[in-house]
Amino acid sequence: MVTSIVDIKGLTKHYKKFSLGPIDFEVETGTAVALVGTNGSGKSTFFRLIMNLLQSDGGSINIFDQDLTEKETEIKKSVGYVGDLLEPFSYLTVKELSSLISYWYPSWDDKRYTQLIERYHIDEGQKYGKCSKGTKKKVEFIFALCHKPMLLLLDEPSAGVDIISQRKMKEDLLNYMEDGKRSIVLATHNIDEVKQLCDYITILEEGKIIHSFEKDELHEKWARLWVSHVSEVLNNHSNVIKVEESPLQLVTDDLPVIEKELEKEGITIKHINRLSLEEVIEHMIGQG
Amino acid sequence: MFQQAFWLAKKELKSQWIGIALTLVVTIFFALLTATLLDQSVRKLFGSETTFYNHTLLDIIFIVLTPSFAAIFMSRPYLNIQAIKDDPFSKRMALFRSLPIPLTALSLSRTLIMVMTLIIMSLGFYITVTFALPDHFFQFLTPREYLIFILFWFGYALVVGGINPFIEYGTNGKVLHIVPWVFIVGFLITVFIFYNLVGQGIVETVLILIKNHGWPLAVLSLFVGVIGSYVWNKLLTIRLARRDYL
Predict the structure, then answer these.
(1) For residue B13, what are the β-bridge partners?
(2) H or E segment at B178?
(3) pLDDT tens across B8-51, in order?
(4) Total domains, chain A
(5) Do A12 and A148 fall into the same domain?
(6) Could you give the ipTM of this predicted complex?
(7) What average pLDDT does chain B have?
(8) In angstroms, rounded to a whole number, what is the distance separating the alpha carbons of residues A24 and A78?
(9) Which domain-ending residue is among A170, A190, A217?
């Protein structure tokens, strides 16, 4: 049976110049969801609402089948969050920060913490404020992992991180997901992370979810076709996303359907190219 | 819950020792000034000589300054105007709220930090005042009356300073920097109105009341202080559950 680890319904948050939602969002146990969107699309606001750092204007948030407002402390024991929250404690060393944070997690694994600190070459004696941007991200990432959370909420965890550590982070996240019981929601601008880690992709634009889909669907359905000509029917077809001239080509979000339509219309396909994830996301945001 | 709150309060106070030390130094400086004024006040009230001194300054010290002992006022959030924009207390609280800390433990830890800070600064202040006072001071005011006087003002500082955790963690950087000025203006107006109505300073009046009524004044002040802090703590708990941090 597939169960939801996160179940959000009708979530809204209004500011003077920005509104988020209403958002319906679900994360199944054992899956990783990528949250993709342009800067200012509301990804961080969304995470902060899930962590109850911002108060929603409407809707409900259930995590592990429990209402966030009722069981907040219990829920947070099993959630790891990366969201740039350590900066106000820049006067503390990494070791002091770990002591401040680990106290609150009964499941904190000191051995794992030491192992990760060594793996990412973190100087525990260094003041957090003196760490580079990438190191700060790595420290936060380590803190999010060490209490063995069932859900990871990662808001751009690898931004500014060196490529070697990025690879290590991906490895650690893949290991984390290995038992099939843990889930990730990952906001990122790094397409490789989406490709390698995520099962589902949710596109957030101007505070609204404009698309949610399974990653593997994309490869099967989205394509660019070079064709002999384009009929009126095809031009207005709901699965034709874009038609471009010279050379004549069209972009579709459902290749099997369009192939049949082209055959019916007697249009010759000269060449087919599957769309990359980046291209699909670009088209979706353009459509949204 | 108390154990968690105490652990967090201790941890934070420890990490802010520089701010605490600087606040203590400033507090001791004011204590030296206070000792002179207090001695002059007691000589004027209970001695035979006619003494002229600045009773307004003495009132300002006790009315305005002693409640500020509840805050580490020589720390960056208070000294740096950038705090209006940066809102450092809310950002600190954002991390705590992201951790599995019960709200009650979190708000209690704020109150404990306030009380511990107030105790440290008050000890520094009153011990310095006591040592700086001349020997003849206790001919006019007995040690018992002097102790009642200290406890009375400690209770008062608890009443007004009790609001501090709420201002720091329940509001924003703008309010943090505006509220002290509102208080100062309000207190100054009170000091002047009081003098015009009663014909003597507030501290002078308190000294006379202590001579006449003794312990009940200290007990009442401490009682109101404890109740005030309790109420502000409850309000802070509610506020922490309902506010945006970022």
Answers:
(1) none
(2) helix B173-198
(3) 999 999 999 999 999 999 999 999 999 999 999 999 888 877 77
(4) 2
(5) yes
(6) 0.89
(7) 93
(8) 22
(9) A217
CB atoms within 10 A of CB A213: 16
Q: From A286, A285, A238, A53, select the one nearest B245 (Cα to Cα).
A: A53
Q: Which residues of chain A have pLDDT under 70?
A: 1-2, 287-288
Of B15, B88, B245, nearest to A53 by CB-CB distance is: B245
CATH of the domain at A134: 3.40.50.300
CB contacts, 8 Å: B94 with chain A: 53, 85, 88
| Pair (A80, A198) in one structural domain | yes
The range of the structural domain enclosing residue A73 comes to: 4-217
Asked if A91's CB is within 8 angstroms of B100's CB, the reply is no
Give the nearest partner residue to A89 out of B95, B244, B245, using CB atoms: B95
Contact status of A87 with chain B (Cβ, < 8 Å): yes
- Determine which helix (DSSP H) or strand (DSSP E) holds B75, and give its type and residue range: none
CA-based R_g, chain A, Å: 22
Our count of domains for chain B comes to: 1
Residue A211 sits in the same domain as residue A230: no
| CA proximity to B196, closest of B87, B55, B79, B85 | B55
Residue whose C-alpha is closest to residue A57's, from A8, A17, A19, A6: A19
Comparing CB atoms, the residue among B97, B100, B244 nearest residue A105 is B100
Residue A126 per-residue DSSP state = S
Same domain, A164 and A272: no
Range of the domain at B207: 2-242
B131: which residues sit within 8 A by CB, 6+ positions away?
none
- Residue in A143, A91, A104 with CA at minimum distance from that of residue A122: A143
A63 CB neighbours in chain B (<8 A) are none
Summarize pLDDT for A158-168 with one digit per residue, the tens: 999 999 999 99
The pLDDT of residue A211 = 87
